[in-house]
Amino acid sequence: MGILALLVFIAVTVVMNVPLRRPISESLLVALLATALVGGKDALSLLWTGVWGALDNDVTFAGMAFVFMGVIVSATGLIERLIQIFNSVFGRLRGGAAYVSTAGSAAIGLVAGSTAGNAATVGSVTIPWMKENGWSGTRAATLVAGNSGLGVSLPPNSTMFIILATPAAVGVSAGDVYVSLFVAGAYCVLYRMLVVFVWTRRDGIQRTDSRHLATFRQALSTGWTSTTIFAGILIPVLLTFGPLFNWLEAETRIGEAAMGEISIIVWVPILISLIALVEGRKRLRGNWGHLRRAIRAEAPQFATVGISLFAALAASNIMSELGVGPQLSEALARMDLPKPLLVLVVCLTAVLVATPLSSTATAAAIAAPAVIALGTVDVPSVVAICALLICTSTEGASPPVGAPIYLASGMAEVSPQKTFIPLIVWFVVPVIAIAWLIAMGWLPIPS
């Protein structure tokens, strides 16, 4: 019954979201009800179990808290000040605008998981700048759309929370995934920097006039407070991993039980929001109406993320009650595929599903079987989750439906079709390769 429930959940989600064009939150709610009905006479009992488990999970709160955090960070202009610091470092290099675009996408990816939002925010600043410095519109649009996936391949993001809500992630620490995904995402950032290096030489981009650029010291003196945002990530990480955690968890100090209650996915958005409010207080002073308008404008996203996470969590609990984990493991074991081939099949499946669907919908639909499948060939759960997130990050760069493609192309004033092949060659295929290498254990991440 567990596998049947999973198939029903996937089918209802895809049909509601793609042919019927219903919002993903509505699609997942209907899929939740359909999943419960698979239990027959126990449907109401299963639904209650699933709903109660979802309401009692901190992932539901964390998902909405990260949306709120993104609004605060954007309204205070903190990211703009960070980009100015990046500009002072990379702006003097050949192709400097492209390096700044990539670094900016990574910075935004650390505080907001939306691929479309990433492309819109970074592209509005760096696409005109890249074109002024000799880059073609097609190159600029391709880079911004390709980099938009950093919103999913770097923590935190709602896709990560949905995967953590699946039965396959039972026993997996959200903090472990956060740190491991940070390392996996760093590989993706480094690869994109390499792409910029190659493109700069191939396209003959020259060094720009740096006389009008602020020096690193000048940029840091005016915008150093923006770097305090990273303390909002570093403090929860230090309190949940490593030597400081080991020292504090001793019974003679705070104790293992108390330290174990610190949730990295709860405290990161709280601390970053507080830091952004303090750091950006001068910009907000006398302009609190701007922040209120930004929060109101983001209200639909709060609802989408909250309802989607709730429905995915509840459905996961129902599938778990119906035994989806053991049943999938048994079925996959009978297939007896070699590890490299099975990993590749899982990665390709995730990318193909993420092409018409968002990464969030993809995670809700296939995360559980994908993680379980990788587990049958001894891929640790944390590594499997990170590899899957890297694969679903291609949603923004996958032609022909990725929203960032059309956003970036519009800003660059080029035909979106001109970016399709470059996106596949330079971003989709290499990202699949990175995910495959991570799952195979050849690109190491903490597990």
TrEMBL record:
The chain positions of domain TRAP C4-dicarboxylate transport system permease DctM subunit read 4-439
Primary location:
membrane
Where does it localize? Cell inner membrane
Q: How does it sit in the membrane?
A: Multi-pass membrane protein
Q: Name one GO cellular component term.
A: plasma membrane
Coiled-coil-forming residues are none
How is this protein named in the record? Answer: TRAP transporter large permease subunit
